[in-house]
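Work Package 3 (structural annotation) set out to generate three-dimensional models for the target panel prioritized at the project kickoff. During this period the team completed the workflow that converts sequence records into discrete structure tokens, so that structures can be stored uniformly alongside our sequence database. As a representative example, we reproduce one entry of 130 residues exactly as it appears in the project archive.
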Amino acid sequence: MSPSRRSILMSAMTIVVGVGWLLNAMHVIPDIDWIWTGALALIGILALFSSSLNRFSYIVGFFLLLASVMSVLRQTGRVTPNVEVPLLVIGFGLLTLTAELLRLPMPQWMRDPQPGAPQAEHPPTPPRVH
């Protein structure tokens, strides 16, 4: 990640934390834990924008944003947990489906090693004691 992009993300994180703290302190919609909700959204945004868009960042980023919205809806009484959880599962399924349909690449760390590429050596497994 470039230093400029890192600086922008750090600024955005600071702003989100400050806004969440202020909303809690001012009792804006007092039944909502703005710090938790903001943290979910912030981590989702970071997943989307901290590196190149790939299957992992797409699914995780948008899922955390969805979880943030669902958290607000649950905390305000508009959605009960027995509805929230199935909606999150459906959302996750839709995200995995769209990631596949959009043919988003897998991140490098999730790819299978190329044939013929040197493999990392693993230390031998110690014998089991019975």
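The chain has one domain: 3-106.
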